[in-house]
Amino acid sequence: MASLQMATVLNSVSPLTVPRSNSLGSAPRNVSTKAFAVPRREAISLILSTSIFSGIALPNAALAQPTVGLREYIDSFDGYSFQYPKNWIQVRGAGADIFFRDPYVLDENISVELSSPSSSKYKSVEDLGPPEEAGKKVLKQYLTEFMSTRLGVRRESSVLSTSSRVADDGRMYYQVEVNIKSYANNNELAVMPQDRVARLEWNRRYLSVLGVENNQLYELRLQTPENVFVEEEYDLRQVMDSFRVNKVSA
């Protein structure tokens, strides 16, 4: 019976489609994905690991799933493309131009942000200054977005690395990596300081790739818990290196 169920699951696996509505109300956007074949052994490994861990309670632990290959996302309407883990799912209404997340590690996601074409006239990513200066701006933006009004919340942050590279399309891209830790008091209303003990809420790595085309600034954003990043660093860097911006026809 177990073998029959396994075979049924494997035969039901189908490529993930990524529909995209046109928020500007014009003709349907030319958005596509390209799936890469997943070895049968990896599919079996994913199913087995899911069934094994589903019955085990592991508080405060993120379970990274086995590598399942990458899928390419192409948005020729806005002019960019990148690869992402093919088992990640699209989330609509997240505020970004496109947003995918890991269905198992909910703190792990990828998104793309674009500057407004009417209010920005970027000619090159170097308009941001050197990579080090761009890194400071990226970190400041993250901290602004994560600003909390809760009592007793404290954030620690640092820029881990900044770099620039010229990709195979001849364009220059900046890469920025930052770490942000969030601490919160276990009893923020306590009167005595010794009763307000700060504890670590989360510890995340944020990876950004910046590129310029069509007079717009494009930013690919990857968010992942630090402990998961250690396990998935190779795959996540592949995702970062895959980001490209493209000329859009007028």
Automatic annotation (TrEMBL):
**Which GO MF terms does the UniProt record name?**
calcium ion binding
Q: Which GO terms describe its biological process?
A: photosynthesis
Quote the InterPro entries the UniProt record gives.
Mog1/PsbP_a/b/a-sand, PsbP_C
User: What SUPFAM superfamilies does this protein's entry cite?
Assistant: Mog1p/PsbP-like (SSF55724)
Q: Which residues form a coiled coil?
A: none
Residue ranges annotated for the PsbP C-terminal domain, each copy included: 69-245
Q: Which GO terms describe its cellular component?
A: extrinsic component of membrane; photosystem II oxygen evolving complex
What top-level branch of life does the organism fall under?
A: Eukaryota
Name the PANTHER family on file.
Answer: PSBP DOMAIN-CONTAINING PROTEIN 1, CHLOROPLASTIC, PTHR31407
NCBIfam families tied to this protein: PSII_PsbP
What is this protein identified as?
A: PsbP-domain protein 1
Species the sequence originates in? Geranium phaeum
Taxonomic path = Eukaryota, Viridiplantae, Streptophyta, Embryophyta, Tracheophyta
